[in-house]
Amino acid sequence: MPGLLNLPSEMLARTFSYVNQSSLKSLRQSCRFTSHLATDQLYRTVRLQPGKKSQNALQEILNNPSLRGVPRKIYIDTVDENIGYSSDSPDDDFLHYQEFPQMPQFRFKAMHQFFSLLESLPQPIEDLGIRNLQADNPKDPKILANMEKVLSGLLSLRLSITSETNDAAPEHDLENPEIRKFCKELPSTWLSPAAPSLQHLSLSSREYSGFYPRLDLSNLFFPHLKTLSLGNFCFFHDDQIDWILKHGDTLEEIYLDDCAILYGFRMMDENVDACALSRDAFVRRNDDYSLYGSFDKRWHDIFDLFAEKLPKLRHFRIGRSQWYPDVPFEQEMDIKVGLYYNRYMCCYDGTGPSPYMEGEKPENVTYLEPGWSLAPQCDDEDRAALRRLLAKLGQSVQESHFGSDNSRVVDLIQTR
């Protein structure tokens, strides 16, 4: 033990970060010095779930003078499938039901209580992650004020966004006013307060986001951003690529999990104002109730831009991680690198079960709806550009493998 205690405190702290929970608890009892280090590791990360048990545990930390200043990383899950309900359940648990483990009212109440507690921490947290974030922002000014205080000064923010579905008619899911409003407000409500300090940003959503409903990040700037992770995000305009490139002075890692280029899109008249393009970006073609548009950038264009204009980039992954049963959370390194065929998609509003569809190859098409477009045929160009980018980064990947959904990737390209 004396030899261990002679090590620099930074090295000891790093060493303790690899120790399991049981051993850390034992080290807390060994001596005052190791107790301090073990306590820091045990309570630095706090994982919270809805319900009184988790809230009480956080309150106990706040009530303990030796612990209340320790937490730096808070992970919140607004869904707890272990919570059941019965006729004599308390009010919190009564709001639980089978298909959606917690209803929006339950999640809002949990978020209000958690942010009230986090706001009262003596030292601000550095890392916040929220799983199953309900796609409907709180409206209470007090909750919003607590959120802004907690978000301000964050170094890392991870949001895993979920939304309610209409099983009988899933093609109408994106017409839900809550998810439209949530996506439109997400930059100002969740990201702007953290922008001055944020170094790591992760956004993933159960629904494809970016285009429809509108999620516009182009007016945000994160002067210290090192890591950007996007899941189920769509690229459909040059402004989105330019937004990433303007972080070139700091950006070191990019993770694109099941992201797609929208090469073609059609919007119904009544829904066009909910998408991210203005009406004048569309043209009318074959009828009087639909508007059409397209995007001509391809992944090889983007890869080459990243290689040229992101001088500090050190790690890049594009492909797919495990999306079942939940939206991925803190799984960036699980992304199996590959150029999956859904990397090019189209969004044709009014079709089902989802307006987002994988593009078809010409040989697979016997009939194409008027105004629709075939998927880009650029496997060779995309493969070559990805290899150039990875080579510049000095990054090796497994080019042939089975994907997370048991699909086959050969020489970086998913086979159909």
From TrEMBL:
Domain of life: Eukaryota
Residue ranges of every copy of the F-box domain listed in the record: 1-46
Cited Gene3D superfamilies: Ribonuclease Inhibitor (3.80.10.10)
InterPro entries hit by this protein: F-box_dom (IPR001810), LRR_dom_sf (IPR032675)
Span of the signal peptide: none
Stated name of the protein: F-box domain-containing protein
